[in-house]
C-alpha cells in the first residue's frame, strides 16, 4: 500500500528513453574501454591538428591547381597531343599528390605519438 | 549463349568466394565492416572493385562515342576524388570509430536527429547510384541472351540481395576484390586483341581528329549546350568532391586496421583506378568507328568486338566483356546495398542484424522497381547525379566536421538540407523542364558547381559560435592524434559532458592537459 511510484510526464519518459538509446549506440561504437583522458597532452594535440590542417589545405589547393593546369593543357594542346594529356597525364599527377600527402601526414603523426 | 555462360561462371565463382569468405557474420559490426580484420591490400582491391561500376565499364565508352573524348574527364574526376579522400577523410574517419557517415555525424555532433537525417541522404545517394547498376545488368543480359530487360533486372536483384543477406561485408570484400581483377582482365584483355585485330584502317580512323571538331575537342559538352568548359568543370567538381562523400566508400575505410592503413589504401586505389581507366578509351575510340550511332549508348563495349571480328572469335570476346560488365554490376551493387541497408536499419531504425538483412531486401526491391522505368537514361547521367548529391551533402559535412570544431548540429542540418534539396532539385528540374541548351541547362544538369559551395557556406554560416558544445574540441582532436589518445577506436565521449555545456567542462580539460591549451 505504501509503495512509492515514480511519476513522470510522457515527455520526460520519451526524453529519457531517447537519451539511453543514444548512450547505448555510443557505447557500441566505442568497442573499447574508455581511454584515460589525463594521458593526453592537449596542447600537443592542438599543434598536431593545426599542422595536419595546413597540410590538408595545401594538398587540396595543389589538387585544384593540378586539375586546372591539366584542363588548360588539354584544351590548348592541339590535336592528338591534347588527347594524350587527357587520357594519360592526370593519373601520375594524382598519384604523386596523394603519395606526397600521405608521407607528410605520417611524418607529422609520428612526431606527436606512437601507434595509429 | 556464350555470354550467358560467361556471366553464369562469374556468378558461380562469386557465390563460391562469398561462401568461403563467410565466417558466420553474427553481429552488426561483423556484418557491416567485417570486424575490422581485413588486410589493406584486399581492401584496396575491394574498394576499386566496388568503385569501378557499370558507369566506368560500360558508360564511359558509350559517352565517349556519344559526346566526345571529353567524357574521359569523368574518369579523371573519379580518380582525383581519392586524393581528397586520402588528404581529408580516410585517416580521421577511421579514427572516429564510426561505421557509417550517420554514425560519424552522431559522434561529432552528438545529435540523434542529425543521424536520421544523414540516413535519409544515404538513401537518396545510394538509390541514385543503384539505379544505373541495375539498368546495366538489364541491358547486358538483354544483349547477350535476349532475356527481356525487366526479367534481367529482377533476376539480378534476386542474386545480389541473396548473396549479401547471407554473407555481409566479409564475403563482399573478397568477392569485390575478385571482381576488380575480373573487370581489369575481361576489359583489358579483349581490348588488346581488338586493337591488334582491328586492322590499320580502323585504327587510323579511330585516331582521326578531323572528322568532327566538336567531338574530338577534349572537353565535355552536354547535349550541345555551347558551354563545354563550364560543363567540364562542373562534372569535375561533382566527381572529385562526390567520391569523398560516397557512403559506401567511406564505410570501406573502417575495415582496415588503423588510420595510417586507411590513408595508404586510398593511395593504392588511385593506382588501381589508373590501371583501369586506360581501357574504356579503347572501346570508345573503336566504337566511334564501328558503331557510330548505337541505339543504346551504354552497350557500346559489347558491340565493338562483334563489329570487328564476326564469328566465333567476336562472340568469345563479347562474352568476356559481358562477364566483366556483369562483375561491375555485382560488386558495385552489393557494396551499395550494404550501405543502403545500413542506412535503412542501422541509422534510421536503430536495428539488429535481422533488420539489416531485411534492409538489403527492401533496398533491392526499391532499386529494381525504380530501374524498370529508367531504361532510357544514360548510366553516367544517373551516376553523375549520385556524385553531385554526395558532393553537396556529405563532402561538406565530413570536411567541416573533421577539420573545424565550430561546426554545430544546427549548421550541419541546415547545410545538409540545402545541399540535398538544391542538388536533387536541380537534377529533377533538368529532366522535367526540358530547357533550351545554355548556361542554365548546364547548371541544372550538372549542379555541383554551385550547390557544393552553397552547402559549405550554409553549413559554416548556420553554425553559431555560441552553440558549439564544450566537447566539440575534444571530438575533433581525437580524430587527428595517434597513439593512446585514440588507439584504434576512440572511446565514446562521456555522457555527462556530451549532454551539457557547463563551464566546468572546460576547466576540467585544462586540468587534464596539465597546462593551458
- β-sheet strand percentage of chain A: under 5%
Broad shape of chain A: elongated
Query: Percent range for helical residues of chain B?
Result: over 70%
Number of strands of chain A: 0
Residue-averaged pLDDT of chain B: 83
Number of strands of chain B: 0
Shape call of chain B: globular
Task: Report the end-to-end length of chain A measured between terminal Cα atoms.
Answer: 60 Å
Report the CATH architecture of chain B. Up-down Bundle
User: CATH superfamily of chain B, called what?
Assistant: Sodium/glucose cotransporter
Keywords (chain A): Membrane, Transmembrane, Transmembrane helix
Organism (chain A): Glycomyces niveus
Protein name (chain A): DUF3040 domain-containing protein
Transmembrane segments (chain A): 55-75, 81-100
What does this structure look like?
Chain A: This is DUF3040 domain-containing protein. Chain A: It comes from Glycomyces niveus. Chain A: The chain crosses the membrane at residues 55-75, 81-100. The complex is a heterodimer of chains A (116) and B (517). Chain A is elongated and about 95 Å long. Chain A is mostly helical and 116 residues long. Chain A starts with 9 loop residues before the first helix and ends with a helix. Chain A is built from four helices and no strands. Chain B is mostly helical. Chain B has one domain: Sodium/glucose cotransporter. In chain B, 75% of the residues lie in helices and 0% in strands. Chain B has helices at 2-21, 28-33, 40-51, 54-67, 72-96, 101-109, 112-145, 149-197, 200-206, 213-216, 228-245, 247-252, 259-276, 279-290, 300-308, 312-348, 353-371, 379-403, 409-432, 439-445, 448-461, 472-477, 495-499, 504-513. Classes of the chains: A mainly alpha (116), B mainly alpha (517). Chains A and B meet through helix 1, helix 2, helix 3 and helix 4 of A and helix 5, helix 6, helix 11, helix 13 and helix 23 of B.
